[in-house]
Each structure stands twice: as C-alpha cells, then as structure tokens.
Specification:
Blueprint lengths: L1 E2 L6 E2 L2 H11 L7 H13 L6 H16 L14 H5 L3 H10 L6 H8 L5 H11 L6 H18 L7 H15 L3 H18 L7 H7 L6 H16 L4 H16 L5 H17 L3 H14 L4 H12 L8 H16 L7 H25 L1
Helix pairs in contact: 1-2, 5-8, 7-8, 9-10, 10-12, 12-13, 13-14, 14-15, 15-16, 16-17, 17-18
Length: about 375
C-alpha cells in the first residue's frame, strides 16, 4: 500500500501512485522521490513531454545553475540533492541541529549498519528526536541522510545508491563508455543483492522493497544484454555474465518461469562461447529435465554435438543431434524457424547415409 503525501490517498501498488501523481499533482511541486516516480511513469508509457513540461525542465535547469551552492538558496525554496551535496558536512550537521537532530559520524554509522535505506534512517531521526518538519524541510532531512551516508558510510550498501548508480551508468553510456557504464550497473546489482532480504524470492516483492524508480526485471534484462554485447568483443565479459545470471536465478528462485528459463539459457550460452562444452551441455540437459516443453535447449544441445565441436563429430554424436532436433520439433514450445531445424535433420541424415555408404564400400 502506497500513500500519496500530498492528498493522503492510498494506492494498492506503485504503478497506481505513479499514475496518480502524474495526473493529479503539479510536477514542480513534487519532492525528489515523487518526481522520479512521475519520470518513470512517463518512460514506462512512452509519453511525450508537453510544452509546459519542457518549460519546467528549462526552469529546473536554470534553478540548478542559480543554486549551485546550497548556501545561495532561500529558506522557502525547494531542496534538491545537489543543494545538500554542495554543503560541507558541518553545515549539514548544523542544519539538522536546527530540527533537533544531533548526529556524529560514529552514531550515524551505528544507525546505518542496522538499516538499508537513507530514507529509513531519516524516519528514525524524526521519531527519535520528535521532529516536526514538513514540506521542503522534511526533504532536507532525508537528503542529508543520503549525503552523510555517502561521506561517512560509503562501505555500507543502501537503497538510494542503486538509483544513483543506474543514472551514472546511463550518463556514461551517453558519453560512449559502454564498459564503464556496465560496471556501474553491475555495482548497482551488487547493491540490490546486499539490500534485499533473504526471504524475498520474487521480483514483485523485490520491486516493493527497492527504490520505487527502478523496474527490476527491465534492469536485469538490460544488463544481461549489455554484458552479452560487450562479450562479443571481449570474452572476459562472458565470465561476468555467467556470475550475474547465476546470481539472478539464485536470488529470485520464485521469479516467473520465463525469466528463470531465459537466464539459465544465458548461462549455457556463455559457457558455449567460452568453449566449456561439457559444462554447457550439462546446463542444457538440466534445462531439458526442468523444462521439457522448451524446444531451445534441445536445439542448442544438438548444435553442440556437431556445429560447436571443433573435431569431426562421430556417428553417435550425429545420431544424438538428429534425435534432439526431432525432440525440439516435437516440444510444445514454439521455435521461430522450425524449418531451419528440419533442414538440419535432413543434413544430418545425409551425412549419416554417406557414412553408411562409405562403410559398406570399405566392407
């Protein structure tokens, strides 16, 4: 259940509150988290910014330049994270003290070690110190918690860091540095693992727990695609892809079968690309056991016996491949090009016939 902080309506899930914020509230009146919610809603629904949105974006950019230092802002102006980042640690502590919050690096780290979110830590402050703050002042408190976390406890994972890492990766991608962008996203994934409780085994539950500006499944699939793309030029990325994909289905064993099946295929594919055929075949055999209606494991396993093998295949391997191709055609799952599989069966049958003819002539 998600509550709107502006009109106190409640919503069953994250998508509903994003839609509500987009339709019912002014963008420039929203806090930072809710602004991200609206941005995510716009991205998810392929909505175009209106002229007013464009004007607001320009105004925000102008405001960011004007408030390049936190000390230049007026007391009634909206806080942005860059305003708080521009303050010294002592200035942040002084501002928190104005709200009755007294913190030191030691006490902060003690709190941070017990939670996984700067927002949660800020909520604790407000409760423990009986803080009566609203509007922009309340925004300052949780932003201060996030900035102090980055300065005083950078070794401790926290949820808000995930979004920052994803954004850093996007910026690096725009600059053409795909490898470094991918590294940021891998670090984001490591943070996701660190802040996700062990009893969360589904993507839906993880989405509810993690920052509400991240669609987890879309992120996971995008990161795998990026790793595969980089691996085409640098095979060492196949090792990173193996580790990542295995972590995904280990971390979320109750994710939808479609995702689990895809990521297990990715593992087998990378093993094939690395030349670790025995391991790859074992992965495909396990997939066939667990998902007998999936045709792709049959097809890929068959390929490994005569197309991926460097040595000339034996008669036994050719016969095994032909049988697997037929099982792929018989499986209830769909193949994009069943005719291509049929052509491979015909090719194998011709090769087997040639072997029989050759053996007969030699006899």
């Amino acid at each position: 259940m998600a509550d709107c902080p502006y009109c106190e309506q409640s919503f069953a899930d994250e998508s509903e509150i994003r839609k509500h914020l987009y339709e019912a509230h002014e963008y420039d009146e929203l806090g930072r988290i809710d602004t991200k919610r609206v941005d995510q809603y716009i991205d998810d629904h392929d909505l175009e910014e209106s002229d007013d949105d464009t004007t607001r974006a320009q105004q925000d950019a102008d405001e960011a330049v004007h408030m390049s230092r936190g000390t230049d802002r007026h007391s009634d102006e909206r806080w942005e994270l860059h305003d708080v980042q521009a303050l010294s640690t002592e200035e942040i502590r002084d501002k928190l003290a104005e709200h009755g919050i007294d913190t030191t690096e030691e006490s902060f780290r003690d709190r941070a070690a017990e939670v996984d979110s700067a927002m949660t830590l800020a909520d604790q402050w407000e409760i423990d110190h009986d803080v009566d703050a609203s509007g922009y002042d309340r925004d300052f408190i949780w932003m201060a918690a996030e900035v102090l976390w980055s300065r005083w406890a950078p070794d401790l994972p926290y949820q808000e860091r995930i979004y920052d890492l994803v954004q850093e990766g996007r910026e690096l991608r725009e600059q053409g540095d795909d490898a470094e962008a991918c590294q940021r996203w891998l670090t984001a994934w490591e943070t996701i693992i660190a802040v996700t409780p062990d009893d969360i085994t589904t993507l839906e539950a993880a989405d509810d727990h993690l920052p509400n500006v991240l669609s987890l499944e879309a992120f996971l699939r995008s990161l795998d695609n990026d790793l595969a793309t980089l691996a085409a030029d640098d095979p060492t990325y196949h090792e990173r892809r193996l580790k990542f994909c295995r972590e995904v289905y280990t971390q979320f064993p109750d994710a939808p079968d479609e995702l689990l099946l895809d990521f297990r295929h990715f593992v087998a594919d990378s093993l094939t690309e690395l030349g670790r055929l025995d391991e790859s075949r074992n992965e495909f055999k396990t997939l066939i056991r667990d998902y007998p209606e999936d045709p792709w494991a049959y097809k890929k396993l068959a390929d490994s016996y005569w197309q991926d093998e460097a040595d000339e295949p034996t008669v036994e391997e050719l016969e095994r491949a032909a049988k697997l191709y037929q099982q792929a055609l018989d499986a209830e799952g769909s193949l994009e090009q069943p005719s291509a599989v049929s052509d491979r069966i015909d090719d194998l049958e011709r090769r087997l016939a040639d072997v029989d003819t050759s053996e007969t002539q030699e006899g």
